Amino acid sequence: MSKDPEMRPAPMQAEEADSIRALATQLRVDSIRCSTNAGSGHPTSSLSAADLMAVLLTRHLRYDWEHPALPNNDHLIFSKGHASPLLYSMYRAAGVVEEDELLNTYRQFGARLQGHPTPVLPWVDVATGSLGQGLPVAVGVSLAGRYLDKLPFHTWVLCGDSELAEGSIWEALDKAAYYKLGNLTAVVDVNRLGQDGPTELQWDMDAYARRVEAFGARALVIDGHDLGQIDDALSRARSEPDRPTVILAKTIKGKGVPEIEDQNGWHGKALPADMAEKAIAALGGPSSVHVTTRPPESGTPAITPDAHVAVTLPDWKVGDKVATRAAFGAAVSALADRPEVVVLDGEVGNSTHAGEFKEVAPGRYFEIFIAEQQLVAAAIGLSVRGYVAFASSFAAFLVSRPFDFIRMAGVSEVNIRLVGTHAGVEIGQDGPSQMALEDIAAMRAVHSSTVLYPSDAPSTAQLVSAMADTPGISYLRATRGAYPVIYGPDEQFPLGGSKVHGASADDQVALIGAGITLHECLAAAEQLAQSGIKARVVDLYSIKPIDVDTLRRTCLETDGRIVVAEDHYAQGGIGSAVLEALASANTPKLHLALLAVRELPGSGEPKDLLNAAGISARHIAAAARDLVMD
Amino acid sequence: MSKDPEMRPAPMQAEEADSIRALATQLRVDSIRCSTNAGSGHPTSSLSAADLMAVLLTRHLRYDWEHPALPNNDHLIFSKGHASPLLYSMYRAAGVVEEDELLNTYRQFGARLQGHPTPVLPWVDVATGSLGQGLPVAVGVSLAGRYLDKLPFHTWVLCGDSELAEGSIWEALDKAAYYKLGNLTAVVDVNRLGQDGPTELQWDMDAYARRVEAFGARALVIDGHDLGQIDDALSRARSEPDRPTVILAKTIKGKGVPEIEDQNGWHGKALPADMAEKAIAALGGPSSVHVTTRPPESGTPAITPDAHVAVTLPDWKVGDKVATRAAFGAAVSALADRPEVVVLDGEVGNSTHAGEFKEVAPGRYFEIFIAEQQLVAAAIGLSVRGYVAFASSFAAFLVSRPFDFIRMAGVSEVNIRLVGTHAGVEIGQDGPSQMALEDIAAMRAVHSSTVLYPSDAPSTAQLVSAMADTPGISYLRATRGAYPVIYGPDEQFPLGGSKVHGASADDQVALIGAGITLHECLAAAEQLAQSGIKARVVDLYSIKPIDVDTLRRTCLETDGRIVVAEDHYAQGGIGSAVLEALASANTPKLHLALLAVRELPGSGEPKDLLNAAGISARHIAAAARDLVMD
């Protein structure tokens, strides 16, 4: 990626320093004004970083405010999202938020200037406010810049010092250094005070620097209120080619309002009106400094997304035994023909079969190692840059370890694809630590989520392909073992659909399964047929959205007799999804038997564990018989 | 805590070194034998650490194998749980597992020697197998040793190198150093190879050492196959008073079987029978070395749990407005009279009110800062030591950030108490990043969980008190705002119960709520009464276990007309719990309206957000009217 000669701004002259100082004062005044008007917010956490952001905004950020979607724009992510008064005050100074909006809508119902930033605002990449997430996401953004777009934009992240206690920050710095992300700079506002007292390291700048350097980033320790030092550090950060920079800025919380400077007890508190008035007057009163930001560098992204590339999915022969995880690997590899598709692995690519993508598109395969929070955060960052990122690992770790990142991806309304393999007791000998048994409940409850659980290779391949074009967070649960291919190559699997097997007008009961239990339901239907009971089977491959119409019709046609079998704990899973759907459809009569995992499983052969959990064919058949006899 | 003169073993003589070498060989042979017999497992990850564990077991671990519950015993936690063949082979050498059990039951259905260790075995403290968790839990164990028990036991943790990519490891080392845990030693088996290729840092021992030292622990770099170096490092580790030690042992994966030593592609694979036979023969064949472990030091724990201490809970006046989070703070402070009660804070103790405990029992209050994984892990470690630990933070972060730790706590079947405050849209202005809206779904699906959501101060206090005596993982969801006290001081709130308000024989509809929505349901019932509709209200403070009997009776008595209102997303929450309960009770007829959060909320006044989500009194009343008119 080219670095144009204008990369480094001319040395800061005295006059410019004065105007930056005036801007910093305005950012402070505005931070106080908007939070005091709102009656809540985090002014003191904004004041400490005002000088840092004033210099960044004036001299280093390269951004076209009128065209926030421009791929060449720098990124600015407030990892300390609670400093939203400062961020919004910067937007005012940049001319994209009016004074009236800032002062009168901040934190109000229906307003876009929310308590913590979200992408409702066009200049915000991702929602922050859960600490330790902005930097990991920025790693994904910067990965795209360096390896995919090959554009010279820079990613700037404002971190708090408290959030450096989150392990996710260290996962992020580790990966940033590993991938030589010279295009990433974290500015840490070390203001010594957390929400509830001093931080662990307070102003031990050397301790922070040692940690940062040990993780492979460059540490620059500065006085965060000295404009010259700030400017120099930001310049050096941008010109470092192959190493992320962490600017450790020693600051004073509440800086600019002497009576609360460096005082505990002022976190997350708006100044009372009288105090605010006095403070604003002492700062010189409101002003209307307008900043002209430097334009982004020119350049064209090296990759142009093309959703219209014809992708030929692999096919399989009905009856062949294929693991759905293998089908995922084959399908996502076929999707490599689309230049925007990227795969992220949690160091299990040989088991999840994600590794097959590396063979066909090594430049779009990123090894994140055993760091699932960073795995999902990187996918979010790539989504910010317009890529279609699939992150995969074992379902137990992929959903539960980064669950807060998945939750926040929902708040951001970004588009990410998660594929969790090795789900449920079906995994067998490795035992319960490796068995996802709560992933469906957790993922269903995430805003914007789609939850899929196919039972065979062709349905998996089609759903993986559909995920590439599905907005929000899509999650596909895959199975470890190999089971027969059920569907032919022309079968379609729309999201929100289902497949009904063996329906007849006089069915007495319906058996609902997905993934591994679909095979058990099919076997149970055969057993029931032998004893003269007519059962249809519903393949509920799409758990969210769910096929309400088919479920309602099924319920009506079987006189409400339904068995649901799932390789998941009994709470919040497939059975719950069916009950919620039938309740929403106001189905008059229902006798539902829910077969699910109810005790802690151990190790063993998959078939023994399915039997022990009471979710295998014979249990399904028995439950169906009970319903029919009842 | 006293350190007895026998703390440091006598220098290792040549003869002893020979017997340790023989033990290490046996551990290798046994690791190969059991995994080959099972047809799966991780022999190569066991072989690399065999020398380390042979020296530890023979000369440093102080443990009474016949009395694993002895409080003076050292702890040995395999954070790399996949090295279970090695751990179980150590148990055989210690004489507590027979050769037959090891060879013929490992990974078999119903066996206690599972694929990854769980506390089904009396010598295992916690389940491992999700990487990066053993060390954080050990921090909790060691906190207890240093600050509560004041016993000289030592906690030894075997870590893998791959798991050092997990941020949770760095949260753990950070806290271990902060709390000066000289009684904690991590032995890292740096065998260079992960599951899917080389690790990030491979054998860059200096890089590991820099990170460890930067985080405040002592790093000792050794050759992990040199018995003398191992012995020296373990001696030094135990005698370091105020700093955790990390022994960085350079090892060779597969060590002892030349054809697979340091070879990629052998992770998690049992040797085929012919290879195993050859390897075992080359190692000298099976043996039966028996180790006599040094006994634990003497001493009495400084704290003796006493569940019979009379605790006087605070009381409140009906009608007073009190936040349930404030009631939690008051109740848990009252519980401080029980010497085994400990409180852990995620640097928000002033908001959660957990901080009040610090005033009454500062020695049993641990500040974990913004590191929720470590927060929960520390609670797990304290549970291992018999303490009743309450961990609290905002619900959004407490449940979702450490969800994998909570899941694994379920696998461990330990007893921990989680209190998440500031749940749902009710929190208002801070916006969606701070709103737990998926916590109930996630927590319900965890094995052994109890999920509570009280609506007023007295019920909160009683439930907090009940949590102290509740096995498994109990979770209480608390509200930010202050709402009227509903219940008098003598009201009882058993787990699995509910409270029915205003029931009469001719009720037309039931309104079910919990927490904030209970107040909305009560208001809705009044509105309905004014329009002549008789509605009863059910306070479902216990979401899991749930009051099936009352729900069934409610359903029968209202002709199936039920409105559920919840400040949670519509999937897997209270509505689902009610539907699951009614399905299990086979209730014949049900018309259930589920009012829940269905769109991404923003910032605003709580009442505006409750309205916007459609879960406030007027929506509940309207839904009830619709059901009644239907």
Automatic annotation (TrEMBL), chains A, B:
**What's one GO MF term for it?**
transketolase activity
Keyword Ligase included in the entry's annotation? no
Stated family: Belongs to the transketolase family.
- The signal peptide here is none
Please list the residue ranges annotated as the Transketolase-like pyrimidine-binding domain.
Answer: 322-485
Which Gene3D superfamilies does the UniProt record give? 3.40.50.920, 3.40.50.970
What is this protein called in UniProt? Transketolase
Name the UniProt key words of this record, in alphabetical order: Calcium, Magnesium, Metal-binding, Thiamine pyrophosphate, Transferase
Q: Which residues form a coiled coil?
A: none
Q: Does the keyword ATP-binding apply?
A: no
From which organism does this entry originate? Arthrobacter ramosus
SUPFAM superfamilies for this protein = Thiamin diphosphate-binding fold (THDP-binding) (SSF52518), TK C-terminal domain-like (SSF52922)
Which EC number(s) does the record attach to this protein?
A: 2.2.1.1
List the PROSITE patterns: TRANSKETOLASE_2
Required cofactor(s): Mg(2+); Ca(2+); thiamine diphosphate; Mn(2+)
Subunit structure and binding partners:
Homodimer.
Q: Write down the Pfam families for this protein, in alphabetical order.
A: Transket_pyr (PF02779), Transketolase_C (PF02780), Transketolase_N (PF00456)
Taxonomically, what lineage is the organism?
Bacteria, Bacillati, Actinomycetota, Actinomycetes, Micrococcales
